[in-house]
Amino acid sequence: MREQHSSPPVIVIGAGIVGTATAAFLAMAGTPVRLLDASAPASGATGAADGAVSVASKRPGPMMTMARAGAALYRELAGQGLFQGLFHKRPTFLVAASDAEADVLSDHSKALGEVGAPVRWLTRDGAADRLPSLTRKVVAVLEVEDEGHAIGYSIVSRLISAARLKVERYCPVASLEYEGRSGRVSGVRVGGAVIEASAVVVAAGGGAGRLIGLPDVSRPRRGQQLVTERAPGLNAALPGSLLSCSYLLSKKHEGEKADARGYGVVIDPLETGQFLIGSTREEGRTIPENDIEAVAHLAASAQEMVPALGQLRILRCFAGIRTATCDGLPMIGRMPGTENLFVAAGFEGDGICLGPLTGRIMADLVRGEEPEMDVSPFDPGRFATGSIAA
Amino acid sequence: MREADIIVVGGGPAGVSAAVEAAKSGLSVVLCEQRPALGGAIHRQPAEGAAPVAALPSLARRWQSLSAKLSASRVEVRTRRAFVGIDSTGAVLIDDRAAGKVEVRRPRALILACGAVERVRPRPGWHLPGVAAAGGLQVMLKEGRVPEGRVLLAGSGPLLLALAAQMTAAGNPPVAVVEEGDPVSRPLAATRLLTHPFILPDMAVLMMPVLLRRFLWRRGTRLTEITQSADMLSARLRAPDGREERFEVDRIGLHDGLRANDFGLTADPPSGLVILRAGDLREVLGAHAAEADGAEAGREAAARLEGRPSCGSRSAMRRHRALQHRLSRIFAPAQGATVLRDCPDETVICRCEGRTIGHLKEQLAGPDAVSARELRLNGRFGMGACQGRFCSEWALSLMSELRRSAGVPASPPDFAETGVCRWPLRPVALSSLANAGIYDDTRTERHIEGISA
């Protein structure tokens, strides 16, 4: 630690949940760090996320495995105090409305079982009993335990205060600075100045690709959501979030067109007694704004799933821009050929669940320690074709 | 099926005169009003069977005259329809509360004339039951419900005297009007009002019950705290000489001026739709100005749609602005501007969610310089049913007070920075959004129930 004080700090670019967690775990481990954001903390996808800490919603494969570990970390940090009062354990109910959706759900339950997620099918009577507000027009309901909810901006705010970070706001990084021969990153350029760095972590969501020389690696996918007024009775009658199988289908990456719009409804009972209703998946939309067609579609789907929601008032609509990579997996790890440049971006809609875990892994990688899990499936090197600017 | 050329939102003097003027061009005009009847706050119509409250002399007959012009026009009036915003595609969203659906309309021009909202500054105890906005009490009175019991009115501005005069006429004068300004101590400023002779009869009506001592008029006096004891409210007052006084009352009406009702509207709406603002929503200058301003907006909208040079200089507003400026000087607080951070930490700022000055200070206490948006999200200021319509102003001004006292020079952050500029502008039933549909012209009829001639 002593010799680190004489060397420049680690610079983390992006104060969303991933970058903030990285900076916080670095700072808590004693590594000097500066956290820069082009605007303010949680102003991108993190601040517009649905807050699902969910394995149930993940695609089978490395994401599902990592989500299981991500959710476990939330439970651990809630128990230790860092996320106390911010992480709320509750199950997810996957709802199939047709035989075709029930088939999808059946496959999905097997995949969840393989990563060790506790799942159980509800009988028709069981569903009516446990989920009295749910429409009777369902074919199958799968309950997934060990899930939870955490609001992205609250987690970011907690991490900032716990690690006593001073976020450098409105500090957009124009480019990375490289040392001539070694191929190492020497700092970042902000306006006319260069800030020196011993290492750089790019956690800038949709802005990451440009900084690491892979401008085409990701594309935006907008999500629109609604928040209702408080309805404590109705809220208490829903023990967990409801996820339609069309949500799982909307996450599939194959064969989507530009401008395509997917709708997969999620109804989340919030701690405040409100409900969060999400969300669209809109290809290529870069501006976080709401249109009536999408909002009406979400409202209608939610009302179909839980008819009593119809009588509640919607207080606000909001939108966020997810950053999706070409293959649907995030980039987590060291950039090939640049030993002190790291990237953690492209989480699409899974950053809340994976953010704290990713931050801890990134902090380990930057400090030269062995991370707690294998992140090789997310190696950013898979996109690098020798075109990385140096 | 043809969409209207122009939609006017708001059925007060500005909206009605805008609709009437715009329709003179032959363009199709729809006037939407959220209440069951037109009139706005100033000409709020009495509920069925209730006796009307006498209007101020300068306003008497103005509404009849406007209503007659509207009846003679081709304007289509649609009541019980609340404007809930403009979506990202430029669609105008109107909540049809009777039908339980949001109408999605695509006019060529939109005139926003939704008036003003009342400002009520947070004070200890202002959130207690029985404390209301004075303007709210006045609307109640116009609808035919006289505020009962012992009533105290406090704050600043001519509205307090107007309400007191109307309550006196209705048979229940307030116990006292507590005015932060001291209009009598500024005779020179008061004489300047003589340059606006049309308000002199109004002033006579306002001052008559004061002169007849029908209620106490405490000038230069600030209401510093409201507490609840048994079933009464206790108001603590501080006079200019520091003397304190208490009043035990049933109700308290507070008023700290008016603000344009433009909360949540973005400064840069989607292109392709002509949007004009009129009346108090554009600039709070009162009913007379609103009527003139609305007419100009109506003419300007028609001119722009017809490709004629726009005539709208809104120059007539200068005189009204001078009047408002003089009034605000006359009613300037005698004990200096209030400082929110001097209020106790328990003072509520956000009534929807019960968030206090102490909660706000906590958010700003750390070493990190949080932004206005973070303050809203993490502190939950402006996250309740009103979405910040009433508390954002105070949360932001307290934020800049605290910043300045910590040696960080800061002007109050803009509403837009908090991220509150979006639709719906007011809560809408989820089922109405689910039923949202393109406005269907084939089912319409001319709605005239809103006009009480």
TrEMBL record, chain B:
User: InterPro entries given for it?
Assistant: BFD-like_2Fe2S-bd_dom_sf (IPR041854), FAD/NAD-bd_sf (IPR036188), FAD/NAD-binding_dom (IPR023753), Metab_Enz_Cyan_OpOx_G3PDH (IPR051691), Opine_Oxase_asu/HCN_bsu (IPR017224)
Supply the Pfam families for this chain: Pyr_redox_2 (PF07992)
Protein keywords: Oxidoreductase
Show the GO MF annotations: oxidoreductase activity
Tell me the ranges covered by the FAD/NAD(P)-binding domain, including all copies.
5-187
Which superkingdom, per the lineage? Bacteria
Protein name listed in UniProt = FAD-dependent oxidoreductase
Organism encoding this protein:
Sinorhizobium medicae
